[in-house]
Amino acid sequence: MNFGKVLAETFTNMNIVSAITSTIFIILLGFVLRKKNIFTAQFGKVLTKVVLSVSLPALAFNSFMAPIDQKTLRQGINVLIFGIVVYIILIFVTKLMYLKYPKGRGDVLSVLTTFGSTTFFGIPIVAAIYGAKGAMYASIFNIGYRIFLYSYAYIKMSGLEMDKKNIKQMFLNPIVIATFLGLILWIIQPYMPQVSAFNAATNQTVQVAFYRIDLTALWLFKPLTYLAGLASPLAWLAIGSTLGEITLKSAASDKTSWYYTAMKVIAVPAINVILLVLLTVSHILPVDKVALATIIIMMATPTAAVASSYAIGFDREAVLASNASLLSTIGAVIMMPIWIVVVSILGATGIF
């Protein structure tokens, strides 16, 4: 395998290059606008709410408006299974990373390391590079993430039992609803009433399920497409605005936050790479290159906003959580192109 050729192909792939540069430039734009007070302290929070309640649900749902085939279905099932199993593994493995710390601090760091910003940081990047298929895999992968984030992480950080409010958050979240609705509609489409629709991409008339609005109701699909398109730029602006709120100097002086950042954006994705290679080579749970890339990008994300909120809300190392969130975000921006290159190299081996 010619590594030089793989690198050249990766950095001449305009989808990859433009996604990386867009991420960095728009985050920097949000940072500058916040520093200049063009964005207020509340503006980043407003953008976040728009992304989480409107744009990402539209992106998740639209990604399932696609034909179904056995290969993609198998990949989706494998991604779902891995997305549940890997969090169980990480819950135990991340505890080992922080054995030298007092139990309370170690528990917080373990939770922050296990749960990254897959929804807010990961999905927009995956969608920008790998399109609807990547967004679909990302939405499926996030099912396990949300199950453990709103159960295990909540209980661990609060010291309380699960409450009705958290269960409601878990299942009535707009993104979760859109994901499950889209996933169900995608799976059952061969068994639903079929109608004739013209596919402009192939210039053919095809038979599709009546609810495939990407072909049967463009007047409805297009508005959702525009809303989905807002997810990436608005998320990156909000990230930049949030970074503009925190003093880098104080965060950079915290050695624990640097160690955490290395574990979050280097060690955790590396663990996933090793597991995915082993599972694919052994044919136990094989994934294709797009699924591999999706999972690695999702796991190379910085601190999850919800996990950080738990730390702050329950007064569990709140300052550490804020510092860790800042440094891991910077670390994720730096490491993301590297992980994309790693995925390209692994893809060139023929394993995936």
TrEMBL record:
InterPro entries: Mem_transp_PIN-like (IPR004776). Keywords: Cell membrane, Membrane, Transmembrane, Transmembrane helix, Transport. The keyword Hydrolase does not apply. It is a multi-pass membrane protein. The keyword Transport applies. It is found in: Membrane. This is AEC family transporter. It comes from Lapidilactobacillus gannanensis.
